[in-house]
Design goal:
By secondary structure, the chain is α/β, with parallel strands linked by helices. Helix content is 46%, strand content 17%. It contains 19 helices and 14 strands. The protein has helices spanning 2-19, 24-31, 36-43, 58-74, 87-93, 110-120, 134-142, 166-172, 183-191, 203-211, 219-225, 238-249, 266-275, 305-309, 330-333, 349-357, 366-378, 380-396, 400-409; strands spanning 50-55, 79-84, 101-104, 122-128, 146-152, 177-180, 197-199, 229-236, 255-261, 280-282, 296-298, 314-317, 339-341, 360-362. The strands form two sheets. The chain has a seven-stranded parallel sheet, sandwiched between helices. A seven-stranded parallel sheet has the order 10-11-9-8-12-13-14. Helix 4 (58-74) packs across helix 10 and helix 6 packs across helix 7 (134-142). The two termini are 37 Å apart.
């Protein structure tokens, strides 16, 4: 099976080069990997001590960040190496300040795994949430390098737990320890013979709790808000926006809207602006303008949404009309903001929990969206109660990083 996997990986590498000729995102995926080994050779000396973290994309990086920061503090003389699989993670966080080296992870071939691990020579390795690359894991095991899964989450429908899943279960055997988000993941691992597992919880809670300790002020958002009730719409997709725009266009001028779309391509931003009948300003147009005169503020940049949530009275988090579903609802929740989402959230434990606790409202259509927003806008007690449920939920679930660090350091 491993032989077949390696053949498929080599064929995929050639196919991706062809696809990259027609896809800008795939071009980043392919071109970004061309200089990885040279970068590692330049930035890591044979005498360096290193610790390696791997994240599939941006969400996993943010999830692992509390552990990366804790490791960096505990091992200040070690170099931190962070790898990404996806361009949507690497391109956004390639200039992060927590890692000493940030690169794409080369495709999972035997030769790439050997060369990468030889150049990085890590003392410890952390895979965040998921991604199980057999050749990398086998090489780490062969060299007896401590390897951990953090904030892991497993589901019954995964190949590990099927009759044909022997190849995939072998990949799990390479991990020294599993830190998982919930009891069901622990039970699933134990059902196939893995007892080196602990329920640590989700490190994203630690991430969003730490956000409260920093300066989240943005003068231009304060000016735009102008002390009016504000709905912040984060990571929206066209399916979200088709409903949201209808509500915005018929809303009172006493309500302000901030929209931070998932995709900030200029043509899509302009399309969004064109269908909004309220006075609308873009982030890229904000200089030397009295923002308080506008009703809608479209954020056509990245990196500031978390701070913007601190100004929200109500939040709508997008993605819930797509697959796999809703984006990160914990960022507004940590500020005590009630959250509205679309119908697809079942793959996200925190969203499921907050919907059940009634801190978060899931809507399926225009009528339900209108009702949810109207309820939260016109009933302050309801708005504050749901916001309190959200912030309390976040605070009650922090502590995963401490659990992980206590185990690693003992």
């Amino acid at each position: 099976m491993l032989f077949l996997y390696n053949i498929i990986t080599l064929l995929a590498a050639q196919l991706l080069k062809i696809v990259a000729l027609f896809s800008p995102k795939m071009k980043l995926f392919v071109d970004g990997r061309k200089s990885v080994f040279q970068t590692l050779d330049n930035k890591i000396q044979s005498s360096d001590k290193t610790i390696w973290f791997h994240a599939a994309s941006l969400g996993e990086y943010e999830q692992g960040l509390p552990v990366i920061e804790a490791i960096k503090q505990q091992f200040p003389t070690h170099k931190i190496v962070v790898t990404f699989f996806s361009p949507s993670g690497y391109e956004v966080r390639k200039n992060n300040t927590v890692a000493d080296v940030t690169v794409y992870l080369p495709l999972d071939t035997i030769s790439n795994a050997k060369q990468f691990i030889k150049l990085v020579h890590p003392e410890m390795v952390f895979f965040i949430k998921y991604e199980y690359w057999p050749n990398y894991l086998n090489e780490l095991k062969k060299q007896q390098i401590k390897t951990y899964l953090i904030s892991g989450i497993l589901r019954e429908n995964q190949a590990f737990f099927k009759w044909y899943g022997g190849f995939y279960r072998n990949a799990l055997k390479t991990f020294d320890y599993f830190f998982v988000q919930n009891e069901s993941s622990k039970t699933l691992l134990q059902s196939i013979g893995f007892n080196n597992v602990k329920v640590s919880g989700d490190t994203r809670f630690d991430r969003v709790v730490s956000i409260l300790e920093r300066d989240n002020s943005l003068d231009f958002i304060e000016q735009f808000k102008d002390n009016k009730t504000t709905i912040v719409i984060g990571s929206s997709w066209p399916k979200d926006e088709s409903l949201l725009v209808k509500y915005i266009n018929q809303s009172s001028d006493d309500v302000k809207f901030i929209i931070a779309p998932h995709n900030i391509k200029q043509e899509q931003i302009q399309e969004l602006k064109n269908v909004i009948t309220k006075k609308t300003i873009l982030f890229s147009e904000k200089d030397n303008v009295d923002l308080s005169n506008s009703n809608v503020f479209i954020i056509d940049t990245i990196g500031i949404l978390t701070k913007i949530y601190s100004y929200a009275d109500i939040a709508y988090v997008g993605g819930g009309f797509g697959n796999p579903g809703v984006h990160n609802i914990l960022e507004p929740a940590t500020f005590g903001v009630p959250v509205v989402i679309g119908p697809n959230y079942s793959h996200f434990a925190e969203a499921t929990a907050l919907v059940n606790m009634e801190g978060c409202i899931s809507i399926q259509n225009q009528t339900q969206l209108n009702e949810a927003f109207d309820l939260l806008l016109h009933n302050e007690d309801e708005r504050l109660e749901k916001g309190h449920i959200c912030s309390t939920f976040v605070q009650m679930n922090k502590g995963a990083t401490k659990t992980i660090m206590n185990h690693i350091l003992t």
